[in-house]
């Protein structure tokens, strides 16, 4: 990631054409994160565009004391949480006027097929912040320190929250009719 940090410094110094390298480096991972958080491909594509634009607009505020990756993921994290909050308000408002059920999105169907119904159902029962923590740790393979930087929490708080999250996920899966989460936890160093 030294190349990315070099590009960031060049963009901050006025060489804005170097931002294209940052976009190339982060477009796919940020899309994966947004797609998993939002559960909708089109919303995720739009979110990535917004996040990369925000990153460009606010790059002057980036301080190299932390990694640029964590800084950009923090923007993505906050952006997705805001979108999910807006979606929640919209769904509540819409439910006042119609009582029919909404069809499952293609991403929700794929999640159900990939992870099995109990796990997919349990994941959708998590809060947006819990889902973000799970995605960042298990799928994006971020360290607890990086997740802390992204979420604005201490490393120890993230570790504790993740431990509670695993227990909650196990309980939810058992309630949803699953045999329980027997797969071994992937262990990562606290990089």
Shape, principal axes of CA atoms: globular
Q: What Rg is obtained from the alpha carbons, in whole angstroms?
A: 18 Å
Helix content: over 70%
User: How many beta-strand elements?
Assistant: 0
Order of helices and strands: HHHHHHHHH
Structural class: mainly alpha
How would you sum up the major sheet? none
Strand content: under 5%
Q: Provide the residue-averaged pLDDT.
A: 81
Please work out how many helical segments DSSP would assign: 9
Low-confidence residue ranges: 97-101, 179-191
Distance between the termini: 15 Å
Domain RNA polymerase sigma factor 70 region 4 type: 119-169
GO molecular function, one term: sigma factor activity
Organism: Paenibacillus woosongensis
InterPro entries: RNA_pol_sigma-70-like (IPR039425), RNA_pol_sigma-70_dom (IPR014284), RNA_pol_sigma70_r2 (IPR007627), RNA_pol_sigma70_r4_t2 (IPR013249), RNA_pol_sigma_r2 (IPR013325), RNA_pol_sigma_r3/r4-like (IPR013324), WH-like_DNA-bd_sf (IPR036388)
């Amino acid at each position: 990631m030294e190349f990315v940090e070099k590009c960031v410094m060049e963009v901050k110094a006025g060489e804005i054409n170097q931002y294209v390298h940052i976009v190339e480096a982060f477009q796919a991972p940020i899309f994966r994160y947004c797609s998993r958080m939002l559960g909708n491909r089109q919303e995720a594509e739009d979110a990535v565009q917004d996040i990369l634009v925000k990153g460009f607009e606010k790059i002057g505020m980036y301080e190299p004391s932390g990694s640029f990756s964590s800084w950009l993921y923090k923007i993505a994290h906050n952006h997705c949480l805001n979108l999910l909050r807006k979606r929640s308000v919209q769904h509540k408002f819409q439910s006042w006027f119609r009582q029919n059920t909404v069809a499952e999105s293609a991403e929700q169907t794929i999640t159900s097929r990939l992870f099995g119904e109990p796990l997919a159902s349990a994941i959708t029962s998590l809060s947006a912040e819990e889902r973000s923590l799970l995605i960042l740790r298990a799928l994006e393979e971020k360290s607890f320190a990086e997740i802390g930087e992204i979420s604005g929490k201490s490393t120890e708080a993230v570790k504790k929250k993740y431990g509670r999250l695993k227990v909650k996920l196990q309980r939810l899966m058992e309630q949803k009719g699953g045999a329980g989460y027997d797969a071994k936890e992937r262990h990562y160093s606290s990089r």
